[in-house]
Amino acid sequence: MYYDPIKKSLGEVFNRTPLLRRLFYHLLDLLLLRTWHVHRELRQWSRGRTNEPLNILDAGSGYGQYTYWLSGLSRKWQILAVDVKDDQVADSNRFFREIGRTNAQFAVQDLVLYQQPNSFDLALSVDVMEHILEDVEVFRNIHASLKDGGMLLISTPSDQGGSDVHSDGETSFIEEHVRDGYNIHEIQQKLRTAGFERIEAQYSYGEPGQVSWRLSMKYPILMLGKSKLFFLLLPFYYLLTFPLCLILNWFDANTEHQSGTGLIVKAWK
Predict the structure, then answer these.
(1) For residue 126, which of 46, 122, 155, 164 is within the disulfide window of CB 3.0 to 4.6 Å?
(2) pTM for the full predicted model
(3) Across-strand partners of 196?
(4) Is the dihedral of CA 188, 191, 193, 198 positive or negative?
(5) What is the number of domains present in the chain?
(6) Comparing C-alpha atoms, which of 152, 180, 191, 11 is closest to residue 91?
């Protein structure tokens, strides 16, 4: 299934007013399990840093929800959010101007080509690398763009069923993906090839997370892929499933997993 048309439709609905977009961000923070894991790592990274003038790269910003969350943690942080989609970049810049978040800027950039040497204290890449074939080139560019001691945080599907692929004969649930998921050792080796020396990787989306993902993401996306009329049914669907998804997300984000369909990877320059 192609996910981008559905994302575009959602953006058109929630971009109508700043209030709706803020509501959209909060819903994503609650529903998307990867956000629970990413926020946990970012809170840990940010301890004792909120009064420091730091530079952050949101590498593949999408809707801009992570830039929104980070820009609210400290006004002293300067965030550059880049994406290849002109419309999303334009929408995000307009929204951030409307709400007065002057410490964040969005720009159109190709991560395969983009490099800004020794500029950032943190780089964030959330569900991006599964879309890019030339992943080592991107890792090299981010490594070069980080300051010494800077950290790269990655969230991406694993090869343990990421993208809803569980056997060789299956194809990715999201057809925009160029790879179904990373082997945990493979991504660490690619990061070493790119120049990173200290790397930590762990699984996300264990058993609780996989159930939550099906309820909160897979089934609604399948419905919306059939017809936009399902937008009318979504509030009632989530009224039933939302409480259970919150519980499952909490358990997944607070449990260590021996295996999982997602990966959280940290790498330091």
Answers:
(1) 155
(2) 0.88
(3) none
(4) negative
(5) 1
(6) 11
Amino acid letter at 210?
Q
Element (H, E) at 213: helix 207-213
Burial of 174 per CB tally in 10 Å (0-12, 13-18, 19+) = buried
- Report the CATH number that the domain containing residue 146 is assigned in CATH: 3.40.50.150
Q: Which two tokens stand for residue 49?
A: 């840093």
Burial class (CB in 10 A: 0-12, 13-18, 19+), 67: buried
68-120 pLDDT, tens per residue?
Answer: 999 999 999 999 999 999 989 999 999 999 999 999 999 999 999 999 999 99
- The structure tokens 């410490």 sit at 103
Length of the chain: 269
**Distance of alpha carbon 17 from alpha carbon 91, whole angstroms:** 11
Q: What is the pLDDT of residues 159-206, one digit of tens each?
A: 987 655 444 554 455 555 678 889 999 999 999 999 999 999 999 999
Q: How far apart are CA 18 and CA 237, in angstroms?
A: 25
CB 36 within 8 A of CB 253: yes
Residue 219, pLDDT score: 86
Q: How many CB atoms are located within 10 Å of the residue 45 CB? A: 17
d(CA 34, CA 69): 14
